[in-house]
Design a protein that fits this description.
This protein has helices at 15-24, 54-60, and strands at residues 2-5, 10-13. The protein has 61 residues and is an alpha+beta fold. The chain has a domain at 1-28. A two-stranded antiparallel ribbon has the order 1-2. The longest helix is centred in the N-terminal third of the chain and has 10 residues, at 15-24. The chain starts with a strand and ends with a helix.
Amino acid sequence: MELLETSKRLILHQAKYATEILRKFEMLDSNSSVTPADTRLKLEVDENSDIVDSTMFRQLI
């Protein structure tokens, strides 16, 4: 976290952290999207899928 102090306000941001995460997942050149997925999509459990590394998934989210 970084703190920027001006005469009228304090600004707290995590720009460096966000950049590090984008670099780690090779997403520095990605474009933003308002809604990256269909909001009406119904998800189902896939019993045959591989186990996901939840730590890495949490970092990405």
